[in-house]
Model the fold of this input.
Amino acid sequence: MYPQLTKEHIHPTTPKRLAWLLIASLAMFGVANLAVGIFGQHLILEPESTMIVLKHRILEDLDTPVDVLIVGDSAGNQGVDPATLDPAGISSVNLCTQGRMLLVGDLAAMRRYIQKFKTGPKVLLMVHVYDIFRRRQVTYKSILEYRSIQAAGIKAKFNFGGLRKQTLVFDHVIPLITKGRAVGDKLRGIPAFEQEHDRGYFAAKTPHQANLKTDYLDHCNEIKPGETDWTICEPHWAILDEILSLARQHDTHVVLAFSPVYDKLYANPAYQRIIAETKTALFDTLGHDHFSIVGPMAVPANQMGNTVDHVLHPAAQAYTKTLLSHLQPLLAK
Amino acid sequence: MLFNSLEFVLFFAAVYSAYWALRRVLRAQNAMLLVASYFFYGWWDYRFLSLLLISTLVDFYAGAAMHRSNSPGRRKGLLLLSLSCNLGMLGFFKYFNFFSESAVDLCRMIGFTPDAVTLNIILPVGISFYTFQTLSYTIDIYRRRLKPVDDMLDFALFVSFFPQLVAGPIERASHLLPQISKPRTIDLDQVNAGIFLLLWGFFKKMVIADTAAVIANDIFNHYTGYVGADLLVGALAFTVQIYCDFSAYSDIARGLGKLMGFDLMVNFRLPYFALNPSDFWNRWHISLSSWLRDYLYIPLGGSRKGPRRTYINLSLTMLLGGLWHGASWNFILWGAFHGAILILYRFFDRSEDWKAPWSGQYNPIRILSKMALMFSLTVAGWILFRCSGVLEDGVRTATGMQQISWFARHLFSAGLSDAAAPMAAKLAWISLPLVVMQLAQYTRRDLLVVLCARPWVQVVVYALLMLGLSLFAVTDKTEFIYFAF
Done:
């Protein structure tokens, strides 16, 4: 062996030293996790939760009623641009948050809006990814944000596995210091949003082909016949009933908009069948009174963001225009 | 059963408990390890246990008979039996379809159109590793450098020892068999080293390699969507991935071994710090490169028969080394590439600086330049290695040659695109712990440098590794790359 060839030197240790090393490092690891677990349970530190708070503030700061109250998940957050509705004289605000809120956020926003303005918006536009109704689990963050969850009849399920997997330090603690984008996002190469705080729209301008491809393959697997239970579960029905009930009381028309979607997934017959079956199930149960469904819209890869339902700004404008053609007759009534 | 799976954690916990319980009865301990090793291997596909058993039986009896015999003809015959049995199984399971398809392609090129005879052959995991391991046993007995082992149980455990069975290190009988045959003591210093190797190995695999794999797979599988520096990001991602993936397996195997009182050979010695191809092969997959040197290159004549013969021997050894990795032209090209650069360096760089580059005799700029050049050549080699074609939903949409051609034409044609910039940033961040650790290991010339640091530094490093695993580990139970070989 020549001198520069790196060798393996065995270093002497003692039982006490080895025990101390293991206990101290496990303790340090445990303390870090515990601390972040506490932050995660009692403080709102993550960018995603910060976004939910931001949307709350937008609603709280809203001085006058709007024509269209836009609620939903992340597909709507970056898929519907209120500025595109402006030229048609339609006032709107985008309060979409994220998929893990399921439909809870929609109901909470609707309730708060009615409480605040004593009337409903003319249209409640609910923008959701196609698979939102198959999702069952509400995470602890939803519970922290929306106390109304129990009122909506959803059983809280604390997901400690999920809690452990959260990129706790980088997503919870460091954003306190960076006050903006999480370092965890930077590490994972997730593009930043350009926020338009006043109207709630988050414009995505950077594609992320690697994530898109992975997400697409995941969805292809999910929609394979027999892979996933697509029935709409009871909590979703409970929330939809509550929303429709409020809408009918306040003469609000509810539009459920399936989000824009990656064109390769759109072309998949299994996807089309799920959309058709979901529409049928919703109409059969909820009827057509004050309720309609639009979408989805196919978007090519070069206009997609990091997942099959996240679009870049130009596609968001195009999608909003397609929604406009559906909204105008409703608002003209 | 993958090291990075819950099943393995449970399996090892059970094995280790039994190992402790049987610590005073060597034979029972070995028998338990053998059953555990067969269970570990059978977890993938129990049918392939028969191949392991055939190898074990043939080589055990051939080795014993060879040792007893004084007839050169009989000894040669027994060696041929061992070689043909082991290489026959390896050839059939690993290379049958490749050679059959290549022969048909060749016939088509000269105007014949025969029907291809291909079989739906599944590659038994680890076959290349245990075949070479057991071959070293019979060859060493043939050369009278090793006495055969008397106990079939010990030999069976040597062939199938689970920590290194499926992806090495390829142990030599002279190194591992004595550790199996004699009572072992679990030494605290070795346990200390083993814990570090396990932690660092899991971190390299689950945090660095599997994250880099996402980038490499995206760029190599969708290569026509990328040009210029984007392709370089893909090549660098694979460079990080393959090292971290493979060396992680060796580290985990060695760590497990140390916990049980075994000392498995070092398989990697910071290969990306190499100054030339010879230096690289002294640092990369050492158990294979030294096997090829001892059982192929030197028997062919090595460098003893003049320069021309040396170059032929080098080329042949590297070509076969490439083919060992898989039945595909890109591996052969990769082997040829390494053979070619070994020869070129012998022509143009006869300096011995790589043996002691920091001794003060050489200009540091010269040393760093040589290191950078060798690293670039290594990355170029990995492009050939990774370009094995693209499969989409089981359908081949691009060949390895098409990928290589694209890389050759577009690698230097443009800067970094907006799409690849986040990937480059992610690769840089995720590689940072590797760079820091390796710089410490290289400058201190100690692979276990962390263990001689101050106690509080060790605590911080261990806690950070655990935290890294809990925060960033890819938990999809991705296989180790070298399982495919």
